[in-house]
Amino acid sequence: MIYSSDQMSRDNLVGRGDAVPNREGWIVPVNKPAGMTSFEVIRRVRRATGVRKVGHGGTLDPFAEGVLLVGIGRGATRRLDTFLKGDKEYLARVALGIVTDTYDPTGRIVERNEFEPPDEEAIVSLLQRFEGEISQTPPPFSALKVNGVRLYKLARRGEDVKPKPRRVTLKELELQRLTADGFEIRVVCSHGTYIRSLAHDIGREIGCGAHLSRLVRTRVGEYTLDQAVELDDFLDEAVSASGGDRWK
Q1: CB-CB contact of 165 with 192 (8 Å)
Q2: What DSSP element (H or E) covers 23?
Q3: What is the pLDDT of residue 239?
Q4: H/E stretch holding 40
Q5: Among 181, 165, 143, 162, residue whose Cα is nearest residue 59
Q6: Fewer C-beta neighbours within 10 Å, C or N terminus of the chain?
Q7: Could you report the per-residue pLDDT of 105-129, keeping only the tens digit for each?
Q8: Which regions of the chain are under pLDDT 50?
Q9: In Å, what is the CA distance from 4 to each residue of 10, 40, 83?
Q10: Is 61 a catalytic residue?
């Protein structure tokens, strides 16, 4: 599923067998697998296509998976800012009773608490209190900078990291299902929202603490997970196509 950047507003699929290069470059919705950084995806795409100018339309944490928009070519990377600032949709799994320092499953456990599982009505009521424009504090382990230094670097050094709260908008918060250790929610949110912080704050409101155990980005702008190409499939195609200078 390869999209030229001048077709983004038309939902027009360019087939793998007849994709044609153009001066605008390409916007490719890739399904990023869990366990890989967004930069590693970009590095692999550069190597496979032979194109130096490659970027993405919004970082996904290494443990997260789902839609990562990849821009190939100068024209496409210039357009990525539109997606960086646009709305995104996620499926998020909240695990209750365990708090980690990163607010996700990759971090060090700092709390374990017993809890009585809340029922659906209580969760729905709680989610409604988070909807709309809210003040949210980013996780201490994040890529935000303080005096030019990434917060996660400061946190790893054991420094006391206190990110400043900022305004974000949670446009839709919907309970999907209950799980053995918590629940899963669908989130539609504005640029700058940290789903890890949302899970952490929800756990704090319930009283037992929580962390984000799984995160799948299902939409960036108009691009959905159903439209995304598997990374390995795309890389294989790109290597084959680069012999014919499709990407140059």
Answers
A1: no
A2: none
A3: 81
A4: helix 38-49
A5: 143
A6: C
A7: 999 999 999 999 999 999 999 999 9
A8: 1-22, 244
A9: 11, 22, 15
A10: yes
Per CATH, the number for 3-86+222-242 is 3.30.70
- Alpha-carbon distance of 19 to 227, in angstroms, equals 16
Task: Name the amino acid, one letter, at 235.
Answer: L
Convert the pLDDT of each residue in 206-216 to its tens digit: 999 999 999 99
Question: Locate tokens 């974000």: which residue?
Answer: 168
Give the architecture-level CATH label for domain 88-220. Answer: 2-Layer Sandwich (3.30)
Tell me the C-alpha distance between 167 and 164, whole Å.
10
What is the distance between the alpha carbons of residues 229 and 28, in angstroms, rounded to a whole number? 8
Cα separation, 49 vs 43, in Å, equals 10
Q: What is the pLDDT of residue 17?
A: 29
Nearest to 8 by CA among 220, 164, 192: 220
d(CA 126, CA 120): 10
Domains of the chain, by residue range, sit at 3-86+222-242, 88-220
Residue 154's pLDDT is what? 63
**Residue 12, Cβ density class (10 Å: 0-12 exposed, 13-18 middle, ≥19 buried):** exposed
Q: What is the pTM of this model?
A: 0.85
And the tokens for 132?
A: 């709309």
Task: Please state, in angstroms and rounded to a whole number, the distance separating the CA atoms of residues 25 and 8.
Answer: 12
| CA-closest candidate to residue 106, choices 179, 167, 36 | 36
Q: Which residue in the list 11, 18, 61, 226 is annotated as catalytic?
A: 61
